[in-house]
Design brief:
66% helix, mainly alpha, 3 strands
Length: 326
């Protein structure tokens, strides 16, 4: 993912949410609407989330060190995971608490035009932010559905902003519905019900974000298309005859580690094998520019060994020898 596209969407969302948070809080002060208070906290939490994404993007650009030889690209995943925690705790749980209190102790809304006016303004502002996120995402999404894009994206910023903005728009509609029903019926309990719905929505979005960023933190392989390009670029049909096995791992959204055992001809000299490996690395980087860390181990292909299948003991996370009984 182009980092500039994600940054543009984050900045647009940050500006919109700060303006919306202030307007919602003012509306809460004048009207006493719990939906407006929950929504103002939601927008404030969203603003903090976008600030976290910007901080993560900046920290990820640090140079590699002896202590962190593969760099800091995963900082972006860590800060995206923090976003899901903030959204769950500050946004969702607060809205649930506020909704419960309003249902338990309902009161009539005052100065109804404040919350209604602010909600209309907020829907327009969030719509602008959501439109920006969609536009930036479409340049990367290709033929993927939106669900596939959110689940398969290796850069967390755009999926996070998309889900936040989508949740914000739905939350605003729920808040408007709660306020509207409270005005029509004269029952403040509807305002509390709208607030509860906002809380449930925010928690569901936070859980989706947490699951997706957890997968990125654990370490995801390259996408299927990039794997095909790497395989095609590695084998030259001359010295490198096939890939015996290969592992890929995203060190960050824009940095990929490639480790493979490759088959070479048994009669090649060490110099010829070394030259073939260097050429294969160049082809891989040309085919997949984010493949910046490449380790190729030469070996002689054996059909009898291949027929045995992969060695589970050599697989990360595979079975280990149980401890001896005492």
């Amino acid at each position: 993912m182009s980092a500039s596209g994600g940054t543009k969407a984050i900045v647009a969302a940050l500006g919109a949410n700060l303006a919306i948070a202030v307007s919602k809080f003012v509306a809460f002060v004048f009207s006493g609407s719990s939906s407006m208070l929950a929504e103002s906290v939601h927008s404030l939490a969203d603003s903090g989330n976008q600030a976290l994404l910007l901080v993560g993007g900046k920290k990820a650009k640090r140079e590699a060190t002896p202590q962190h030889p593969f760099g800091y690209g995963r900082e972006r995943y860590i800060y995206a995971f923090l976003v899901s925690i903030v959204l769950f705790s500050v946004g969702g749980m607060f809205a649930l608490y506020e909704g419960y209190e309003k249902i338990k102790h309902p009161h009539e809304l005052e100065h109804w035009y404040w919350p209604v006016g602010v909600l209309v303004f907020a829907i327009i502002a969030e719509g602008f932010s959501f439109r920006t996120a969609i536009k930036e995402s479409n340049t990367l999404r290709g033929k993927q559905s939106w669900t596939e894009f959110v689940r398969r994206a290796k850069a967390p910023e755009l999926p996070v902003v998309l889900l936040e903005d989508f949740g914000a728009l739905i939350g605003l509609i729920l808040a408007l519905g709660g306020v509207g029903l409270a005005l029509l019926t004269g029952e403040g309990v509807w305002d509390g019900i709208g607030t509860l719905c906002i809380g449930v929505l925010l928690i569901l979005i936070a859980l989706v974000l947490a699951a997706e960023t957890k997968s990125l933190l654990l370490g995801e392989s390259a996408g299927a298309e990039d794997v095909r390009k790497i395989e095609a670029a590695t084998v030259d049909g001359d010295t490198v005859t096939r890939i015996i096995h290969m592992r890929t791992l995203h060190l960050g959204p824009e940095e990929l580690l490639v480790a493979a055992k490759i088959a070479v001809r048994h009669d090649e000299t060490a110099g010829e094998v070394a030259a073939a490996i260097d050429a294969a690395e160049s082809r891989i980087r040309e085919a997949v520019p984010i493949a910046r860390v490449i380790y190729l181990e030469p070996d002689i292909y054996s059909e009898s060994e291949a027929a045995k299948g992969p060695d589970p003991e050599a697989t990360p996370g595979g079975p280990t020898t149980p401890p001896a009984a005492h």
